[in-house]
Each structure stands twice: as C-alpha cells, then as structure tokens.
Amino acid sequence: MSDPLFDAAVDGDRRSLxxxxxxxxxxxxxxxxxxGSLSPRRIxxxxxxxxxxxxxxxxxxxxxxxxxxxxxxxxxxxxVAVVAVDPSSPFSGGAILGxxxxxxxxxxxxxxxxxxxxxxxxxxxLSRASGQVVDLLDAASFDLIxxxxxxxxxxxxxVMEVADTVLVVLTPESGDVVQTMKAGLLEVADLFVxxxxxxxxxxxxxxxxxxMVHLDMPLQSTDSHWAIPVATCSATENDGIDEVVxxxxxxxxxxxxxxxxxxxxxxxxxxxxxxxxVVSEDARSYALDxxxxxxxxxxxxxxxxxxxxxxxxxxxxxxx
Amino acid sequence: MSDPLFDAAVDGDRRSLxxxxxxxxxxxxxxxxxxGSLSPRRIxxxxxxxxxxxxxxxxxxxxxxxxxxxxxxxxxxxxVAVVAVDPSSPFSGGAILGxxxxxxxxxxxxxxxxxxxxxxxxxxxLSRASGQVVDLLDAASFDLIxxxxxxxxxxxxxVMEVADTVLVVLTPESGDVVQTMKAGLLEVADLFVxxxxxxxxxxxxxxxxxxMVHLDMPLQSTDSHWAIPVATCSATENDGIDEVVxxxxxxxxxxxxxxxxxxxxxxxxxxxxxxxxVVSEDARSYALDxxxxxxxxxxxxxxxxxxxxxxxxxxxxxxx
Lengths: 320, 320
Fold this sequence. Notes:
Two copies of one chain form a homodimer. The radius of gyration of chain A is 21 Å and the shape is globular. By secondary structure, chain A is an alpha/beta fold. The relative contact order of chain A is 0.13. Chain A has three domains: 1-37, no CATH class; 39-273, Rossmann fold; 275-319, no CATH class. The first copy, chain A, has 15 helices and seven strands. The first copy, chain A, has a seven-stranded parallel beta sheet with strand order 3-2-4-1-5-6-7, sandwiched between helices. At the A-B interface, helix 3, helix 7, helix 9, helix 13 and helix 14 of A face helix 3, helix 7, helix 9, helix 13 and helix 14 of B.
C-alpha cells in the first residue's frame, strides 16, 4: 500500500526522506507495506543505482574513500546517498561520527544525502533496516548509494549483503590475514585496500592477502571469476586513492557485463539471508511479547529458576 | 537423561570435560538433555561456584586480571576454570589467544582448566554455549569460573548474564564514558577498572565513570544498592591489581549477604534473556531447514527476486 510520506520521499523531498528513514529505523507500523509498494530499480540489475559497501575495522580510513567517492560522483552529476551503520561497536572511537563531520564539505550539497542508522536491534534488525533504506534511496533515484559499516561483527557483515561491490579497508594494525579470514571478510570483499601503506607490516599484509585471494584461483578476472585486487594506499598522503576508486568502478563494470550471473547469484543469496535474519528477529519479538504479561507462567518460572531456559526454548519451538 | 560422557566430566575426568564442552560448542544432539540432567549448585545462590565475568575492549589488560585471579584462587586451594569467548571480534588482535598463552604458567596445573569457545553462531548460540558450559563446570565442582569476553558487541555482553560479578576493564584509549554507556557496559558492570592509569586521560575517564555510576545513587553500598567501585591500576607495573581482586571478592560477599535479592533478580533477568536468545536462534535454524529443500518454492522465489524477503518473513511469522 502506498504511503504519502514515502511517496514524497521518492519524489525528492529531503525532509520526507529523512522522516521515512526514521520510520524504518524505528520499525513503525506500516513500514513493511510502504516499502513493499516501492519500485526499486536495482532488482533489474547492478549499477542503477550503484550500491557500494565499505567496511573494515575502526580507524582504517573508510571515511577518506567515502569522501573521495562522493566527490567523483558529484563531478559526474550523480546524486549520492551515504548510509552509515554503527550500532554495536561502541569502541570504534566515534569513527562514524567523525566520518560524518569530515564529510561536512558535502553536507550543504542538495544532491548529497548523508544519514546514519541507529538501529540497535539484533542481526535481523540491522540487516532489515539497511536493506529497506537502500530500497527507499533506490526508488528515490539516487545514483550512488554508499553503505558504510565498521566490520567487527556478523551484524555488520550482514549489512554488506545489500551492496553490489564491497570495499574492505584494512591497515597493518588491524590484524593479519588469518583474522581477516576468520572475520568472514574474504567472503564479502570485492576489493581489499591496505591503507597506511607506510606502516610496518603493510607489505606483508598485502602479500598475504594476495596469496589468500588467489589461492587456486586465476590471477586475472574471467567471465565467471572476479580476481579480487589488493591495493595499497596512504589515504592521508592522498596516495593511491584514485586507483582504489577505479577498481571499485571496474568491479561494477564486470558485474554489469560478464560477471552478471555472479552478481545475480550474490543478490539471490543475500535475499535468502535477509529472510533468515528477519525471521529470527521476529521470533524474538514474538516471544518477548508473550513474556510481557505480568502473570505469564513461563516468565515467572524462568525468573524463579523452576524452568530451564534452554529446555523452555526447545518447548517453545515445538509448540511455536 | 544422564549421559556417560557428561557423567565422567562431572566426576573430574579432564578429557571427558573437554569433549563434553566440544559437544556443547558443536550443538551435538542430546546436549540439551545431558545438560538438563546435571545438578548445578549455583541455582541455590551465589558463590558456589563464584562465576566472574571479565569484559572490556581488546588490549585493555583482561588477561592480567585473569592470571592474578587464578593465582589467588590456587593459593586458597580452589579449582579454577577459565572460559574465553571470542567469536565475532576478528580485530581483537588475537588477544584471547595471547591470554591463553600468557596463562600457560597455569596450564600444567591439574586444578586449572582453560578453554576457549569457538561458537560462531548468532546471539543465542553464544549465550547458550557459555551458559551450558558454566552449568557443566559448576556441576564438575569448580570453585571459581572465569568467563572472559571481548566486550565489543551485544553477543559478548549477553554472555556476561551468566556471571555473579562482572569486571569491566577499560583504558583511556578505549573510549570515553559516553561510549561506555552506549556499549551497555554500565548495565553489566559490578566494578570498573581503568587500566594503564599512567596514560593521558586516565584520571578524566575515572572521574567521569564515577560521576556516571553515582548519578543519583548513594556513594556507599547499602543492602539494596551496590556502589560500583571505579578502580585505577597499571597492570604492567603490577600496581593496584590486588585491590581490584579484593573489590571483586567484596562484591561476591555483598551478593551472598545483603545483596542477595539483587543477585536473585539479576539471575532471573538473565534466564529470561537466555530464553529469548535461544528462541531467536532456533527460529533461524528452523527456517533454514525449511529452505534447504532444493525445490522449496520459498527459496526459489527469494532467489529469483519474486518474493520480498521482509514480506516473506512477515508471512512466515504469522503461519509459523
């Protein structure tokens, strides 16, 4: 069912867009229907809009790339939206807030829309909120949508499902290749960037990432295989950043051409995962509602210790 | 139903204990029943065993306290178990592994059992695994059970539900009070420790934590209120650590005495949350099983983009 606020947002009213995003973030009633009535262009294929994910640990330099990407897109006359997701990483040192401030240069540009998502919820909440916001920004005709997360948990990586191209920014300080793999970053990355390339360990990290990426894989991209580039740069020295942006655009071109089946496949997997995340979130909400009744025997039994929570959950599932 | 492996673990066989923990970690069939048949002592009250949670960001110095606590408990002839949980924090710089290595001094002591949990799962998986492992270690007559997590996400904080006393270790580098609050650390902490007290910002962090902790609260503990101490120390200089350990023991004493109702209340809330986490995890597994059938119309529809995942999840819930 169509919704006046969402309609106005799609038609380009920034205030309505901001308010519609707040409604998504708050899980207001009717949001699901309003989102369902949108016509996102991206279901048809990659590139319109281009959804770029940027992830990596705190302090890796993600904001520099976001800033640069905005500038490049603006010189081409494109409309840009940035969605910053930073819900569960309290120790990120306020990086995302810092990013927003550093992007202030773009804040007065009417064709740049920057917004952070506050969704605290569990895995499904984050994934749902970011996916729905991208659907809305897509329908609102943005050309480039940048989704930025601090990649230190599964919730943050799940958000990357929504992106056409995922840029993973690392630094020598952020850990070695084993940790990168353990984090699942290898599975989401379309390109790696080793930032702060002047620091000790940068070359070793790059070399090991390349070894890992090309393990039993062709060194060159083919129609069915994207050879993940491992770039180095020094963002503060403004050295190597343009090449990274070029690589991101090259991946998009590949997705639109020979890599289209791979892109389709990833989108398909992404929709399945989103479904699972949301089911899990909803089950929690539903159980919570059932416990809210002051006199609920289950709640009283759990509180008193008469009911084992693992057993109760198993019983809930079979009756559920 | 009793299980021979779990019985042997409870009777003190270390190899059986390690294998039983692996079964919990792997969610092997029959685990729920085996855990249900145990008789953990802790349902009766705090202190037997003493379950101590230690959390804080990577590099805060948690291992130093763990090591010191083990040594203190051993001089009193107590059996000690350490459970290290580090599933979703790939950028912790290998802190937990480092901790284990640093604790090697205790590794040859037959009365010290150190084990890490690999559970990758979602919120419910972690919470369940650590809760069940503590139940098992409790039944196996350990006197002190230390549960250590890197507190950078909700999953890690959820693990702290299992503890009688929670020690939150911070450093001036790990963020300010606002971030500590945002992280939910104020809600789980029974004592704060500002480590690396010689670094700039340590005094300000301590002062602000104290302001926050005592906001509208009595400065001294009463029967119904525990005044959270904010200690400073320099773990590498071995300065102030004994006082921290004393504070942890003071909190336990308070729980066993005048604070008993507060302890009971927290355990009650913990059991409710565990139930919710596990329900949510199970719903996900159940939906996943349903999708596994190659010909499942839902899976095919999601993959093809014919079915909106948010709508499908809503439909799944109502039929579920």
